[in-house]
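Hey team,

Filing this mostly as a record. A colleague (T.K.) asked me to run one chain through the structure pipeline before their review meeting, and I want the input and output archived in the tracker in case anyone asks later how it was produced. No errors, nothing strange. Just documentation.

Input sequence:
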Amino acid sequence: MIIPQLSATMMAEEVPLPPSAAEIVPAPPLPLADQPSPQAVVMLLFTAYVLLPLSSALSAVLVLIASGWLFAWRRKRSLPAVPVASRLWLFLLAAVGLSALFAVNKPDSWIGLVITGAYLIVIWVTVAALDTPERYWQGMRLIFWGSVAWAAVGIVISLARFQWNFNSAGIIITIGTWDHRANSIFMHPNMLAGYLLLTVGIGIALRTREGFARRWRYNSGLAIVLLCQLLTQSRSGWIGTFVAILLAGLLVDRRLLIKSALAFGVGLLFFYQMVWNRLLTLGASEFGSNLNRIRVWNSAWQMILDRPFFGFGPGSWRQVYPAFRDPLEWENLPHAHSFFLHLGAEYGLSMLTALLLLIGIYSVRSIRDSWNTPWRDASLALSFGVIGYLMLGAFEFIFSEGRNSILFFTLLGFLAATRRFANAPSS
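Output structure:
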């Protein structure tokens, strides 16, 4: 009688619950750390990526909305903090705050503190929202192919020497070329060159993923970007691009060196005279643009020596520079034509040091944490894009253009996000 009783008990335990009882049993919640960010936040961020070349202001608004939404969502669920080197953030913000405190024009200088905080928010929302490999790669694809499209526009406009201006009701649109140099929808070829240089880093990162067809698809996109970069005739853009591709070819994929050399050879066949004329001016001190930059750099250096620690304050260039300006300078520039000298003159060496440390830490940590994983090449490619951009910054004030600045800090966000996926598959 014992066996039948056991069988009956087992049968009773195997009887399924009635539908009404099953409905009131809640599904087990996801662990807090595994809850994906709201899809609406990600879509806002992706929209900002797509619209960035058209409007840095609109993109910035979308990023701020996404960050506020995401911050409230994470706080409500008591999620752990996003690893974004926040201690160094405080050091950087403190340096900018002191620069604003001792500024010659305090009302305008406090805007620099707000802008610095906004750029750091771009890093945070990028890391927090792109919390899965799929979102990470999708975000980079949107930036890359959007840049490829505008690079193609720049190529066509440059070769056709097309010019179109619209100015009505406060809306100003300029599409055309600057001295027959490609600038697409950017105001100056050097600004376009900076945007394309950051895109090169993203494109190389994307082509590290497995798949022959995928790699050649990104190779084609990179070819369009590099052709447009050539047509910008931006010497600083060429130098930065050369450095980024050289480093990526040596440490990521040796085939990049061969393909880039072949592409450059083909480009020379069609644009030999243009390239040769621009290269001849690189070391020519008598060349007007070079001579003028040297004079501006010397004046900016004198400003740094006058107030080395905290500078004259964010946004103080136009007010202070005339007192240091070389009388032989033939162009009254609104910046020092150098990222390092301009920040040193306005913000001081304290802020410049903090910012360079922040950039270096993002790159080093991303490469270190992903070194023995499939994500290493992506970290290296993004880091080399950042290095190339800083090389361009030695000759241009790269933060004078909002689109480039937002994209630059977005790349830092991608570097920080790469660390999150070190133990995840790369595809």
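Quick notes for T.K.: Strands lie at 164-168, 171-175, 177-178, 181-182. The mean pLDDT is 85.
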